[in-house]
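Practice problem 4.
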């Protein structure tokens, strides 16, 4: 879904941000299981992320082209491709993009194939709080390298 999901209490209209959340980190979530994707979106929005949630590799590339997120959570097994290859492609496309890969299969296999600058490769189930901690640490490293002030948490 282009534009992702946003909590309605923040005053969003048609996927356009009208809130200070605009300064929050953009996060691409690529998960083909609709129910899991929706639950993760709710949790990630509550943590203050601007979430762009999609189900396929093709949608992920389209969203990244339009929104330039700083962070990503990518499922390894997707209906139209391999999440590890997608992560590598997106990281090449967007300098500084920080991605966590996660899988319902054996994480060791994905870990061996993961891009060297991937934040982590995790096995499902993954707690959103754990993802948040990993992503915030990665974002802090990027921000300190760039010498910019951190976005609100």
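Answer key:
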């Amino acid at each position: 879904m282009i534009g992702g999901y946003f909590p309605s209490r923040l005053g969003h209209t048609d996927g356009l941000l009208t809130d200070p959340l605009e300064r929050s980190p953009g996060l691409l979530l690529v998960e083909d299981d609709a129910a899991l994707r929706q639950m993760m979106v709710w949790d990630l929005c509550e943590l203050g992320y601007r979430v762009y949630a999609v189900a396929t590799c093709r949608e992920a590339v389209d969203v990244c082209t339009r929104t330039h997120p700083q962070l990503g959570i990518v499922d390894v097994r997707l209906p139209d491709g391999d999440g590890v290859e997608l992560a590598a492609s997106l990281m090449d496309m967007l300098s500084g993009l920080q991605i966590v890969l996660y899988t319902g299969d054996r994480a060791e296999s994905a870990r061996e194939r993961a891009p060297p600058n991937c934040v982590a490769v995790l096995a499902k189930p993954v707690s959103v709080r754990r993802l948040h901690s990993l992503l915030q640490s990665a974002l802090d490293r990027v921000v300190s390298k760039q010498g910019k002030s951190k976005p609100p948490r």
